[in-house]
């Protein structure tokens, strides 16, 4: 019984650590910008890979295989994290301005 409680507490602490790491990642905007410009756009020639995937998606995603969806996730995740980080920062700034009034 006690062992089960300790195991559950360890899982809870692990989840908290994961959330703290994500919070630190979202605060590091320089890393997110670099990831977006490198991983998010690679390969660059003849057009950025994410652009081709988004065109395919906007065209109805006809013929997209699971690998294509995974590829879209990998190339799009740096951009999504950057947008999330900027949104959180903007929300915090707006919140502090409304509190000061």
Features:
mainly alpha, 4 helices, 101 residues
What does this structure look like?
This protein starts with a helix and ends with a helix. The relative contact order is 0.11. The chain has 101 residues and is mainly alpha-helical. It is extended, with a radius of gyration of 19 Å. It has one domain. α2 packs antiparallel against α4 and α3 packs across α4.
Q: Care to give the gist of this entry?
A:
This protein has about 100 residues and is an all-alpha fold. Helix content is about 80%, strand content about 0%. The protein is built from four helices and no strands.
Question: What are the SSEs and their pairings?
Answer:
Elements: H1 2-27, H2 29-38, H3 49-58, H4 66-100
Helix pairs in contact: 2-4, 3-4
Radius of gyration: 19 Å
Residue windows where pLDDT falls under 50 for at least 5 positions = none
Shape: extended
Strand content: under 5%
Largest sheet: none
**Terminal residue distance:** 53 Å
The level of helicity is over 70%
Query: How many domains, in number, for the residues?
Result: 1
List the quaternary state of the chains. Answer: single chain
Structural class: mainly alpha
How many beta-strand elements? 0
Query: Mean pLDDT score, rounded?
Result: 85
Order of helices and strands: HHHH
């Amino acid at each position: 019984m006690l062992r089960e409680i300790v195991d559950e507490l360890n899982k809870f602490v692990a989840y908290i650590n994961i959330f703290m790491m994500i919070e630190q990642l979202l605060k590091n905007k320089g890393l997110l910008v670099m990831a977006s410009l490198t991983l998010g756009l690679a390969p660059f020639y003849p057009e950025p890979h994410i652009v081709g995937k988004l065109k395919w998606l906007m065209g109805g995603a006809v013929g997209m295989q699971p690998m294509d969806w995974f590829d879209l996730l990998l190339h799009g995740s740096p951009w999504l994290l950057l947008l999330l980080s900027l949104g959180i920062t903007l929300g915090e700034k707006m919140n502090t301005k409304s509190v000061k009034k």
